[in-house]
Automatic annotation (TrEMBL):
This is Transcriptional regulator. The lineage of its organism: Bacteria, Bacillati, Cyanobacteriota, Cyanophyceae, Gomontiellales. InterPro entries: LysR-type_TF_proteobact-type, LysR_HTH_N, LysR_subst-bd, WH-like_DNA-bd_sf, WH_DNA-bd_sf. PROSITE patterns: HTH_LYSR. Keywords: DNA-binding, Transcription, Transcription regulation. One of its GO terms (molecular function) is DNA-binding transcription factor activity.
Amino acid sequence: MDKLTALQVFRRVVELESFSRAAEALNLSNAAVSKNVQELEKELRTQLIHRTTRRLNLTEAGKVYFQRVSSILDELESVEECVADLSVKPHGLLRVTAPMSLGLTHVATAIYQFQSIYPDIQIELILNDRYVDLIEEGFDVGIRGGGLVNDNSLVAHQIGDIQRVVCASPTYLKQYGEPKSPEDLKQHHCVIYTLARSPHEWSFGRGHETVSVHVDGSLKVNNSLAASQAAVAGLGLIFLPLFTVLDGLEGGMLKTVLKEWSTEPLTLYAIYPKHRQHSGKLQVFIDFMSEALSSIAARI
């Protein structure tokens, strides 16, 4: 048994939840994949995977083994990249995740520019607004906005802050009036962005004064660009990062309110698994994206 190959096969079987899909991904036969896992189990003298006709389930020993094996394989890949980077330019695949709105408006464009400089680095960009487990789902880096992640297995590199604003369409403000204080928001229709840290609690500051207001509305969405479009359509007030509403503001389709009140900015981070921190291709990517996105944050 080639131990390294067997470990790689076991990992892919678990990640893909299928012997046949792992075989296809690794360009091996189903029999070869099954044999590698069986030989691992024979050597360890314990069952790693419960096999049924419908699905695969890890045993308790299998769960522990998978976590440790994944960490070892990732560290080995990182060491190989580190050594290779001493003699060759960065290359290989990077799996990147980012929120849908930020990805569409800024991250994707920055990646296009990055690949023109580093054509030997392939990028797999996955955009979605759900929480992503970077390690379990095999991502090299995630671009995220919000608070720091309390996870010792991750490293957070701060990129910059983006201002958040409250705004609405001129049509809405003409019909319902412009709020003069945060308390006035209680009387207004608000479009709720459900993935915000506190969707129904909008907080403001002015001098030494801080105010948190409970808001509500008939429309709730899980995408900030959709919330911005709803505001342009006159459905209510929104509280979003400036990059999502900038086009509407510059085009006169939206108008900011409560300008004398400050809001907590959205902090952008590049977050990556700690065992990947010596990867040359990851470091050049983070450096490039940090400069590209921090300049955007400063400009808006």
